[in-house]
Design goal:
The protein is built from three helices and no strands. By secondary structure, it is mainly alpha-helical. The chain has a domain of about 60 residues.
């Protein structure tokens, strides 16, 4: 049985798309392509991957901050962390500098 794919989609899960770029950006992609000895697709794919990772990281940070604001550390938790930190520092061997 032949697997069905959407138009432009390869069986690997890739989708072929066409984009239009301003001349300056297209020239920059071309310079990168030559410097990296790769394809335009690879240059654009890497740029998109980096943008997606940056966006995901920003979303994670935002969720972390929102969670912390909803449930900040208590005074007791802060004191406990400070005690653990002090204990860890005291357990390190003393070194003469």
């Amino acid at each position: 049985m032949k697997s069905k794919t959407r138009r432009g989609e390869k069986k690997t899960g890739s989708v072929k798309i066409a984009i239009s770029l301003p001349r300056e950006e297209a020239d920059y992609v071309e310079r990168l392509r030559r410097l990296q000895k790769t394809s335009r697709s690879a240059v654009i794919r890497d740029a998109i991957r980096e943008k997606v990772l940056t966006e995901k990281k920003a979303e994670d940070i935002k969720r972390y901050i929102e969670g912390y604001q909803r449930m900040p550390e208590t005074e007791e938790e802060i004191a406990e962390l400070q005690a653990m930190q002090q204990s860890a520092l005291e357990s390190l061997p003393k070194e003469d500098w």
